[in-house]
Automatic annotation (TrEMBL):
Superkingdom of origin organism: Bacteria
Source organism of this protein record: Mycolicibacterium aubagnense
SUPFAM superfamilies: DinB/YfiT-like putative metalloenzymes
Protein name as catalogued: Mycothiol-dependent maleylpyruvate isomerase metal-binding domain-containing protein
InterPro entries according to UniProt: DinB/YfiT-like, MDMPI_metal-binding
Domain Mycothiol-dependent maleylpyruvate isomerase metal-binding: 15-136
Coiled coil regions, renumbered to chain: none
């Protein structure tokens, strides 16, 4: 029997443990989602990442399906079958990611209206496992340690980036020449710089320069980028004032 490639997906074990220690109906830090909803979402993620990458490998590219389409079949399953399906999709994703190792690492593959580098497909599933583990467990020390890894920030900026800001920009309803820019700083790291105007958003890493809008720790910064909030608000420090800080928090609304 094939098993999940835990060398490629080392975050699988903590995620599985978090899920299995709670009932499917238990609420999570991901607003309006239970543990079962997260498993549905993760099953759809694993399937779609493999499907799109496999299509590229076969020379038959496919469009990325919306969350609703890819998740609908799994919502109809009972809990045991859903967990089995998730394991199966993770095994398949591991196989496809291994096959894709033969491609140059800088190969671009279409994904949700943008492109991702080939290694980012497995890495994106890893980030989903880390983030949604935190959604289930909250701010325990192991979850914070996983969020704080530098690759988590890099992936959020380079592989996901602009889509993370799209919803927040729509809420802000910037008009005309209105523009906002903000820096999220972690001591010893590059700043995450986000900008938005009426037509576009941008996100990048840049050396610290001038005052930061927010100063925080590496784990909290990843949570903020994904529209989450740490349990302890004291982990966020700002002298920017309520208007600027509020606009940044709105821009960082996540998906």
């Amino acid at each position: 029997m094939d098993t999940i490639d835990t060398d490629r997906f080392p975050e699988w074990g903590p995620f599985a443990e978090a899920v299995q220690q709670r009932s499917p109906e238990t609420g999570t830090w991901c607003e309006a989602w239970t543990v079962r909803d997260i498993v549905v979402h993760q099953t759809g993620n694993a399937e779609e990442l493999a499907r799109v990458l496999e299509g590229h490998l076969a020379g038959e590219p496919v469009q990325t399906r919306r969350f609703e389409e890819r998740e609908q079949p799994y919502r109809a399953m009972n809990d045991a079958d859903l967990w089995t399906a998730f394991n199966d999709r993770m095994v398949h994703l591991g196989r496809i990611a291994a096959a894709a190792d033969e491609l140059p690492a800088d190969t671009d593959v279409a994904w949700t209206g943008r492109t991702m580098k080939v290694p980012w497909f497995a890495e994106h599933m890893r980030e989903e496992l880390v983030l949604h583990s935190w959604d289930i467990t909250g701010d325990n020390a192991p979850a914070q340690d996983r969020l704080a890894q530098p690759w988590m920030t890099d992936h959020s900026v380079y592989a996901v980036g602009v889509p993370l800001l799209r919803r927040g920009r729509d809420i802000l309803e910037l008009r005309g020449d209105e523009r906002m820019a903000a820096r999220i700083r972690v001591d010893g790291d590059d700043d995450v710089v986000v900008t938005a105007d009426a037509e576009s958003t941008a996100i990048a890493l840049a050396p610290p320069d001038g005052p930061a809008t927010i100063e925080t720790d590496a784990a909290t910064r990843v949570l903020l980028l994904w529209g989450r909030r740490p349990a302890d608000p004291g982990r966020i420090r700002s002298a920017a004032g309520p208007l600027e800080l509020g606009r940044l928090r709105t821009l960082l609304s996540g998906y």
